[in-house]
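Appendix C: a fully annotated inverse folding record. The material below is reproduced so that readers can follow the format used throughout the book. The structure is listed first as tokens, followed by the designed sequence.
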């Protein structure tokens, strides 16, 4: 199993199984790896951060891309005019193009198609620029709130568990 590559990560088992089914129907051996959240999240009883990875053999990666592309094209045609993205405004559809990491590849492609149907111009340079802006935005470190740091120090000096919890959160 160590020679398998992670193809895609999902937050729900249902989505991962659907993806795996598409691949196995097309002769690609795919497995699902369950990645539960870290121990800190487990103590809090949260299921946030639970991930499911689709693993494939490295030699199948090129075939997988074409299989998924064909599947998404048929989905686009099948859901024509019924897809929920038709209810989105152009501004919301452009936001999907700006944040592809928050949407499925199918939604991303469908948003492009809808915008083109509505007469919006979308070129490769614009998409590349949006992608680069998004990557630079995601690369920026998250700023801590000053009051949280000060409160954490105060409670940790006082020996409270709240100070430790705030420190862990930061």
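Designed amino acids, in order:
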């Amino acid at each position: 199993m160590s020679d398998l590559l992670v193809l895609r990560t999902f937050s729900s088992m249902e989505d991962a199984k659907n993806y795996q089914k598409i691949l196995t129907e097309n002769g690609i051996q795919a497995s699902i790896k369950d990645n539960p959240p870290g121990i800190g999240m487990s103590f809090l009883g949260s299921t946030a951060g639970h991930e499911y990875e689709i693993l494939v053999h490295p030699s199948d990666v090129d075939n997988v891309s074409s299989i998924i592309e064909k599947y998404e094209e048929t989905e686009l045609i099948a859901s024509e005019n019924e897809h929920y993205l038709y209810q989105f405004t152009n501004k919301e559809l452009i936001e999907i193009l700006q944040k592809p990491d928050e949407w499925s590849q199918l939604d991303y492609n469908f948003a492009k198609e809808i915008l083109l149907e509505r007469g919006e111009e979308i070129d490769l340079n614009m998409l590349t620029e949006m992608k680069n802006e998004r990557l630079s935005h995601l690369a920026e470190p998250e700023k801590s709130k000053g009051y949280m740091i000060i409160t954490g120090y105060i409670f940790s000096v006082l020996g409270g568990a709240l100070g430790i919890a705030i420190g862990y959160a930061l």
